[in-house]
């Protein structure tokens, strides 16, 4: 401003003159009127300016300009002014920042209040969660004022002792409490803010559980890298560890955040993606996924790079469809909530998805119709799908001007996003059988059946069989010939899955019972799948060939030998009989060590015995009773100095469980042939039995008559030759 203007008694340098050779920062620049903007961009163009009140020659200056504004540029600035700004940086409001930045702001403002009040702060964890979740008015300043008000309220109305101020969730403003997406937890974890130090990890209990999960998964990755466990076992154990982690979090919380809007959103995304991939995934899948992602800790993951590479290799090479579904879900969720998702989290979510696919996809055959013409395939597929009442077919129309390669690429793209382990059936109007096989075998995990001369009638017949859950070879054998069509079956050339077939001549229902009992007996690291199969189908040569092409069948277990070429068979009775351990060793010695085989044999005998005991007991818990008996049998084996065969163990499980129930119900047996002679000749045996039953006598307040011990002795004499105790 020049001297004399507006009564100025001397010239005063302005902002530009003062900033010459430096930087001028202009805040709230949107407040400049258009005239002021014009003067400013004149200086930006020429580097020249005049003092207020001057009309003489212009002055010059070299100044770097930085502007700041909270308003929309296009609404408050001249276009000619905006054009002259070479770099425009948009700084996101706090509501759009990542979780780390938001958490850092919250921590900073609380710590500043702790220093001002000269007290450490103990916060309900829910306060931090709500501040992280809500969009606050006033941006960073609004958050700062809110935290200052919360601390002031706590100072006035809250508890403070020994330099510690307690801040409860109820001190949040009413508008935040009203908008809270779930009931505030009275026993939520505490977050400590120290006036002269750093905060503890947010939600320390949650962080501890996540660290444990991280350590367990890293250990499994190291085991996988050293080939100590199989890929299948690795996947199962990852899922088990994730569910244990989520269970631990549930136990730490007094109420479950079922109404959390993030949880609902993630569940909805999971369900929508499952529909897109034509999968009927269970409700648990969506809930577990949502629960995991809403409980992610706000801290970097401590995973060594070699371990991270193992995780990534598994995701890239082994996870397949589950990994693609998980990636799609994470992309959608991350776009909305900006979560910190690590390779470890991708692996965990993929394991959840994979387990859901295993549990619910259940092996329905995937079917496609390919036909020449603009809508021929769509028309046939539409009729079949509507009449069956569910979507069985995916239609691929092939207009005459479209090359087959274009259609095959579309088919490949569809199948890459589909669970194909139960097989793929392609119905086509004419030709291209070999070309279809060449294009598809590299992207599917099960058998491929290509059927020629598709008609609406054939499509309906096939769709009805698929809806009933029949397997692909059975459909091809029974239905396709009725429609006078030709079909071919192809198998992927990938490494085959090892399986143990379980069968029963009485039907598939009994075979499934055998399968379930055997699965309960197996170890976590048993990398062989068990498949139940009808005996009559195994006797069918075409079905047998199909199974041998699709799987590496290590053995058949059942009631009768289906005589599969080159596949060993062992009867159920033999597995559970006197030489059961030997038979099991012959089947599994190439896959497990002797200790593992012995444990499986023990579990199998126990599970089959438990199945019989459950039907015999009326008031006792069969599982607990079997546990007591297992301990007793182990004591007897140590005392007698030899290992009991399977027949004896099964007999003891059934007899002792029924005997214990008799004792509890006061229906014990008191008569035994030559009781006095038995007592005098077998005193050591009686003492051994009484000693092993001591705990049960106290537990159930029962006595064990010598007559009952006599019948136990009879079982030993029956099952063991020359038993002399």
UniProtKB/TrEMBL annotation:
It holds the Pfam family PRD. One of its GO terms (biological process) is phosphoenolpyruvate-dependent sugar phosphotransferase system. Keywords: ATP-binding, Kinase, Nucleotide-binding, Transferase. Residues 364-489 form the PTS EIIA type-4 domain. This is NtrC family transcriptional regulator ATPase domain-containing protein. Residues 620-725 form the PRD domain. Residues 1-152 form the Sigma-54 factor interaction domain. It comes from Klebsiella pneumoniae. Transmembrane segments: none annotated. GO terms for molecular function: ATP binding; kinase activity. SUPFAM superfamilies: P-loop containing nucleoside triphosphate hydrolases, PTS system fructose IIA component-like, PTS-regulatory domain, PRD. GO terms for cellular component: membrane.
